[in-house]
Amino acid sequence: MAWDAEPAAASPRVCCQLQEDEAAAVHRTARLRGLCLGQLGNMRPIQENGELRIESRLDKIIEPLREKIRDLEKSFIQKYSPVKFLSEKDCKRILVTGGMGFVGSYLMDKLMMDGHKVTVVDNFFMGRKRNMEHWIGHENFELINHDMLEQLSIEVDQIYHLASPASPPSYMYNPFKTLKTNTVGTLNMLGLAK
C-alpha cells in the first residue's frame, strides 16, 4: 500500500452519515452553549423573580405584625382626665413638693384638672409613682426627682410644700432625715418663695 495513493472513495451513504453526525454534534454543542449562555443571561431575571417572591412572602408575614403594632399603639395612647383650658394670664406655674405622696397626688390632680402647669418635686423616698403616672407625658406636667435638702432653682407662681416622710415607720427608720427634710426643706422652699 502506498502512502501517496488517494484514499478510496467513501460510499455516499457513509458520507451522509458522517455529515449528519457532525451536524448533530455541532447542533448539540451549540444547544449546550446556548443553554449555558441562556442560563447565565436568565440568571438575573430568575434571581430578581426569586427576590420578589421572598419579599412578597415576607410582606404577607410582616403585615399582620404591623397591624398588631398599630393596634397596640392606638390602645396605649395616653388618655388624660379632662383639663380646663386657661389663658396665659390665668394659668399658674405651680410647684408641689412631695407631690407623689397621698395628699400631694390629690392636690396635683386637682391643680392639673383646673388647667395649671404643675411641677412635682419628689425624691421617691415615700411617694409612689403610680399616684401620678396618669399625668406623665401631659404638656402641663413635669416631674423632678430631687431631694429637698438641696437647693432648688425654679421659677414658679405658687408653692405647695408637702415633702415629708409622714408615716411613723418612716420617722422610726430614719428620724434625722425626717427632721432635716422638715426643717431644711422648708427653709429651702421659703428661700425659693422670696
Please provide a written account of the structure.
- The longest helix is centred in the N-terminal third of the chain and has 64 residues.
- It is built from 4 helices and 4 strands, in the order αβαβββαα.
- It has 2 domains: 66 residues; 101 residues, Rossmann fold, CATH 3.40.50.
- About 4% of the residues have low confidence.
- It is elongated.
- The chain is an alpha/beta fold and 194 residues long.
In short:
The protein is 52% helix and 10% strand. With 194 residues, it is an alpha/beta fold. It folds into two domains: 12-77; 93-193, Rossmann fold.
Number-wise, the strands total 4
Strand content is 5-15%
Can you write the helix and strand succession as a string? HEHEEEHH
Specify the number of helices.
4
Q: What is the average per-residue confidence, as pLDDT, rounded to a whole number? A: 78
- Taking the alpha carbons of the first and last residues, their distance comes to 136 Å
Q: Output the structural class.
A: alpha/beta
- What composes the largest sheet? 4 strands, parallel
* CATH fold field value of the largest domain: Rossmann fold
The CATH superfamily name of the largest domain is: NAD(P)-binding Rossmann-like Domain
Output the CATH class name of the largest domain: Alpha Beta
Catalogue the unreliable spans.
35-41
Q: How many structurally independent domains?
A: 2
Sum up the overall morphology in one term.
Answer: elongated
So, CATH architecture of the largest domain? 3-Layer(aba) Sandwich
Q: Could you give the order of strands across the largest sheet?
A: 3-2-1-4
Rounded to an integer in angstroms, the radius of gyration calculated over CA atoms is 43 Å
Helix content: 40-55%
